[in-house]
Structure formats: C-alpha cells, structure tokens
Design brief:
This protein is of the alpha+beta class and 133 residues long. Helices cover 26% and strands 30% of the residues. The longest helix is centred in the first third of the chain and has 15 residues, at 6-20.
C-alpha cells in the first residue's frame, strides 16, 4: 500500500496507539521520521525509541510515555500543519507559538528538522510540519 503523506501516517499511528494505551508503536522508517522521533524523545514526549533494520526501509519502534498516576498519554495532541496539498511555511519572525510555549512545532529548515524554539534561536524559517502538545 502506497502512503501519500508519510508524516501524517507517522502522527496518526502515534495518536492512535496513545489513545488506546499501547506501550509500543511500530512505524516504517525514513530520515524525516527519525529526526521527528529524536525531537519527541529530547522534549520528553516519548520514553524511548529504537531503529531496527529490515530488508526494506527499516522500522522505528517508539515506547510511548504515560502519566504514572492518571495513565494519561504525554502527547495530548498531534496536528499535521503542512499537508501535501497545501504546504505551510513560516519565516523566522512569524514562527508559531504552541500553547504559549508549552507545546512545540516541528519545523523543516535548511539547518535540518528542528523545533520552533531552536529555529527562532538560529533565526531560520521553514516548512511547519506539525504541532505537538
């Protein structure tokens, strides 16, 4: 099956797995998805991840994070912003702020895939991939 928007598929798999309480989700790998997974790990939205190679493109195994008392997922909302039919770009001074800085926006820039805070610090704009909070 051909996936037309692999980033939307990545976000949907994480959203669905966390909404039903799965501990681990497996996602077909790509360099963009690996960079986004690393950002989610660095910002504390997931517990851990592991890249495994198969004979095709590889698999990303993501261990999802939940609140130990309430069992609520750490990721409450994932939104795809720039879609394949309508790309959304933002300059360095017009980058979005998610929940007044409580969430993150993942941006694809000339310096790689980074968060909105890092893009402001580097003073670069780019394609707004998604919002996480």
């Amino acid at each position: 099956m051909k996936i037309t928007d692999p980033i939307a598929d990545f976000l949907t798999r994480i959203r669905n797995a966390s909404s039903v309480g799965h501990k681990v989700v497996e996602i077909p790998a790509s360099n963009v998805k690996k960079a986004m997974t690393k950002i989610l790990m660095d910002k504390g939205y997931i517990l851990n991840y592991k890249f495994t190679e198969d004979n095709k493109q590889g698999i990303i195994k993501i261990a999802l994070k939940y609140n130990s008392k309430t069992k609520e997922p750490a990721i409450t909302d994932l939104q795809r912003v720039s879609k394949s039919g309508l790309r959304k770009y933002a300059s360095a001074d017009s980058l979005p702020r998610i929940l007044n800085g409580l969430g993150i926006a993942i941006i694809s820039t000339s310096k790689g895939i980074i968060t909105d805070k890092e893009a402001r610090k580097e003073n670069v704009g780019g394609e707004v991939l998604c919002y996480v909070h």
